[in-house]
Queue: 2 jobs
Job 1
Amino acid sequence: MSRHFAFVNIPAHGHVTPTLAVVAELVRRGHRVTYATTAEFAPAVEATGAEVLTVGSTLTSTHPGKEVTADDVAWLPLILLRESALLAPALLERFETDRPDVLAYDVTLYPLARMMGRRWDRPTLELFPTFAANQEYSVAKEAERIAGVAEEHPATAAFHAEFTEFLARNGFDGVTPEDITRGDTDEPRLVFLTREFQYAGETFDERFAFVGPCLAERGFQGGWTPPATGLPVVYVSLGTAHNLRPEFFRACVAAFAGRPVHVVMSIGDRVPAEALGELPPNVEVHARVPQLTVLRHASAFVCHAGMGSTMESLYFGTPLVAVPQMPEQDVVAGRIAELGLGRVLGRGEVTPESLRDAVEGVLADDALHARLRDESRRVREAGGTRAAADRLEARAEAAVRV
């Protein structure tokens, strides 16, 4: 039976991209999907067959390039709460007469989605594009620890006050922020990584479905052809948000110039290729590349340790050299190192020599390659797109039975 699924997300590649294959699978199964997103992400969502509800945003998909501070981390929950407040009027109006059977939402927008679910008595389902959270583990708390956020930071009180006001404005005077944060005890969660990669994975109950990365071809990213030289491919990318790093990309050029590797660099739109100087024949530079295509052929991946990129690399068994750019990525990089799936360079440790040593080290590490083969198998067996769509359908059917 056809159902109506609504997806609510923030305008960030690392949050939208993991959902696209799932949305396409739901549409393929005959369901209707409405996806609330900004104009920037509308073409990618439309390509899945979903209906796009174009909305505004307080956020941007890129970062200004400065170091992420303790204050940045502390105020982030309030910034995301304000995104919920901005989206609320448009979503309440759109779905008031066309209520979804299931509301799937990114973890960052839980105040909005759980409020809407209560308002309409509709089931919700939480999406985790990074580490899941329970009483035993929280990536947000770990990022705060790494960043050095003070225990009594004023952002905490400001967040609680605005959350309370947000609920009252939407007709929930008797509901507290703690009520919404606690949520429905039966609400299922989709986690786009494996239980083995999750910190404290054994402490998460059956509500959490660790489906791993949900991958599909991304024609909107264009094409790429492997080099005819047959040299090992080293793929370099800092993702889409924290890539305003010309000095990093110049260090990569210097590290691999004349070495027996072929380097593919994805540098984004904000760093002109000319800023990297004259490129050697074994280095190609693009604003963006079809990441899955490149990873199929890559022998090493130098990246920012974003969870999406990390899971995609592990899917293909590609060794990682992680250069995290923010505290949450520090947490992911720590897990990569802990499981022996690659090497980590701190932001202050990046030089041509350290990059070259790290890449040549992972290329030559037979034990690391054996661990990667095991991890790649676990990632592929996690269930991916089909398991995620099954979970969403089950949520809709359970609500109908009740």
Job 2
Amino acid sequence: MAQTTSELEESLLIRLLTTSPDRRLTDSERKAFDAAHEDYIDALQALSQDLRKSPLEILHRLIRADARLCRLKNCICDKHSLQASLLKSAIQLTNFEIRLIFTRLRYPSIADPVSAEVPKSPLFLSEQFTPTDIMELVTALQLSGAIRRIDGTRIDLATLVDVLSGTFNVRINNPEQCRHAVVNRKLRLTRFLDFLRNNLIAYSQR
């Protein structure tokens, strides 16, 4: 799973970009960069949606990570390299999360419209997992049509996200973007589903 949120600005992606900004990469190094980029995205979304941290604390960490990333732009000469592409993506996603936090701070009633009368679920996502893992499950359920409404019609993504995020007390700010990040992974496309599958198989073989 992704690194802890406290390590965001010291992520493997940033370390790789720092040590190999312009080097021609081997196939194994390209895979390492891709995996580090995916882990950065997971850690980024986990930090932004961490209900145990205040928006100001989250914003502080996001800005520090963004500053580290922006300083790396001048280190990359080949603007068409994999390093440049992943750096650009990381900066864009970090800036997007920063804008979301600013929106939550400026318009708290719009950004967090959940009524205080709605009881919270007693369930929480374990710390080693991220909202992106839940989004992997949501995407598979929604695309397969496995979950239906009471009238038998297919459920839409937003409704399914709302139900499961409420069940596990996680915040998924932009379901469409999060789903896009999940289905466009180059590596470990179904890592959370594989984890669930492997645990079920292990239990059945006892």
